[in-house]
Structure prediction request, 199 residues.
Amino acid sequence: MQEFDHIEALWAKHTVDVKISADEMLKQAKKDVSNMRTKSLLNIIGMMLSVFAVAAIWLFYDVTSISTHFGISIIILAIAVYTIILYSNHRVISRNDFTENPNIFLQKLKVYQLQRHQLYNRLYWFYVIALSLGMALYFYEILHNFELWLQILTLILSFGWIIFCSTLVRKAVIKKDKERIALLIEKFERISGQFKETE
Prediction:
């Protein structure tokens, strides 16, 4: 047993010092930043397409109730506001060239991290409440055209989907986003440290 403890202690002392050049780290960081910018841009495009899809209801469905008009308006407004917030977040990471000054980009990345935290916590719930209210007003007229079982199924699926996205999907996205941004911040801190060493 003592031999095993001795081997374990030797293993714990053995550390491999891997030196990665600043250029290599910049290449890795460039790829990560590019992926983050692309995903952010795709989110914005998806949200804009959602605005057009919901607005198309006015074109293809003869809306008679004022509550339906209010419901569609609230849904469009909620999606549009959330899209503007996403675009504002996107500008924080897309406006700076991180290869020119990693320290400035690191600060912007920390701002982006805080904005994403607010987006997934406080602002997200306003978005969900607005969507739910809009859907409830929209369904007030639409569901009268369906049979009872179809009304119940539509309500269960619609609000079930919102609950599913607000719990499981949201938690998974937050965790993945947190890890991705934290890893990127760590890389830029190392890059900044290596630049200071070379100066």
Observations:
- Confidence is low (pLDDT under 50) at residues 14-18.
